[in-house]
Amino acid sequence: MHGPGLALLLILWVATHNAAVPWIVTGVAAWYALCWYAVPLWAWRRHSTR
Description:
It is a single chain. The chain is mainly α. It has helices at residues 3-16, 21-47. The chain has one domain (3-47). The chain contains 2 helices and no strands.
């Protein structure tokens, strides 16, 4: 996890003092990876000509 993920972790940890914060940040990072990498890769493979 790099810059934005660490910033989100720090902000949420300081603001909420909740033990669930690492899980929330992991979920946000997974959602980001899905939307940024998996969906375009899936669309590219589905619509590529062979």
